[in-house]
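Bit of a strange request maybe. I'm writing a small parser for structure token strings and I need a real example to test against, not something I typed by hand. Could someone generate the tokens for this chain?
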Amino acid sequence: MIFPDKSRFLATAFALIAFLAAPQVDARGAPSATSTEEARPAMWKVSDEDTTIYLFGTIHILPQGVNWLRGPVESAFNSADLLVTETRLDKPEELQSVFMEKGLRHDGRSLRDSLPSKQREILEKSLKKSGLEINSFDHFEAWYAGLLLSLIPLKEAGYDQANGIETQIDALAERSGIARYPLETAAYQIGLFAALPQNSQQAYLSEVLEQLPTLKEDVSKVVAAWKAGKAEELARLLNEDESDETLRKVLITDRNAAWAKWLEGRLSQPGVVFVAVGAGHLAGEGSVQDQLARVGIQSERVQ
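Reply from user aminoacidic:
Good idea to test on real output. This should exercise your parser:
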């Protein structure tokens, strides 16, 4: 498996970024009353006689001042008796433990020593340009180093995981006392990437290094599409030109199918469920809605 294109790099980064330095959940993570920029991200609904399930596409990083919890989304969240997310972010100690287990090297070699000379040179130049020592990532696996390196320009541009939807929703859930259910564990999600063979990890790191100069612009396009509720454009930005079907199957399609199966089962129980998962899972071919349609469950766009 390799990461030959920009879209796959962006999709992978957005899938993992929510786990980094996850803050303790409290009311400070809730949407600010002083938010000034209005957003209308996409949301769908599936329902039967006694069950309503809202599907809300999240984005893991945002600048400050984005007001997304309003209108149909706010009404849907407030009416729900269960919040379903990809995983839980309210136990940072556990997350850090998983990253230490999966993200650190255990083979006695440094990351730079494991890289081809040209890639090592590019990595060292990028670290210097970012104001870091060239040995800063020596103890990391290539996938983890790439992810951390991608966060630097985003942080400088004002994007912050603390402003991401997952963090805000966790805070809202803590404040409201709504029941919670995670579709996956953090260890499972991180393990999908940590299990990549070394050549795939190094290819991912190369992709990060190649895209660093335009990363802020690329992410800005993704955020703009999310705020405008342009689901198909978002899918194109995150998933276009996907040439590795095996990778797409592992990271996206199989997970979407598993989530759709859970949703199908949940329809047999009465209540209102608010499901918040990465927006890339709710658009494009093989989306959660596509998986539901295959078993005869139709989704209705409600924002």
